[in-house]
Predict the structure.
Amino acid sequence: MQSFFRCGAAALAVALALPSGPANAQAYPTRSVTIVVPLAAGTGMDSLVRIYGDKLSHALGKPVVIENKPGAALMLGAAHVAASAPDGYTLGVTTSSVMAFNPVLYKKVNYNPDGFAPISLYVKSPFILVVGQDVPAKSAADLVKLAKESKDPLTFASTGTGTALHLAGEYMKHRFGLTMTHVPYRNTAQSLGDVMTGRVTFSFAEAGASIPLVKQGKLRALAVSSSTRLPNLPDVPTFAEAVKVPDFEIVSWHLLVAPSATPKPIVNRLQVEMKTIMDMPDVQTRISNIGLIAVNMPSVEDVQKFIASERDKWSTLVKDLGLVGSQ
């Protein structure tokens, strides 16, 4: 009889030690999953999340709800996800801004950039180096040469001090030892409008905003900032190709994350599902149409190494520019 009770107690201990509820990947999910998007509905990021969110819903067998939380330079959404219960039911999209340079650029951020569990690094968002039609430079190499030889500093536009587009211009300036003047604007329409009219020499611009203007002949694309060419601008070289600097790449990127304490079986389940979804031909096509570049999704360990290298790259630049805590 004592042996029976000992066996029963042992069995109960084992049962209690087994993961239950959302910690068990086989039981997860039992209800809807929310993905927090830090930009407004209708943006390129939002459109892509809705594409894979629908497919993830089918894969998980539960609704996937997209919740837009724009504001505070993408940090409002990040803070919400970081503070959420680590149970796999609140996920979020973060970017290079949130993970790599905002923590150095801003006096205060209300989240820990290490407070996330990476699930899927799924796209890179390249920038297009554009000039007005009256600028004599016909290539990125020409623009660098023009900047070095010009009596007056060239000007470059961005959507505001400390934004990814501003830091892209500063990275180019820093990398080639150029003297150039930054001109911040309130929005993309204003900045590209002044590039078109020649009031500003050039800008790095988001693909979605600039490609239509390039195809209409209102802007000239000199290079793309990614390490690979864009399918919808196949004749435009990468910056690395144009200036013969193989390691030159300036991109934003989209990363699906969960709060850091989310159980590993749930993170692993979501990673497997996202890899399957992002490899689908129709998803790949829609990524290209938005002007983004699909990433052959690396392991969680590789993602962590990539984030660390990006953080080092951008924080070093922010420090060199004297912009630490400037926002």
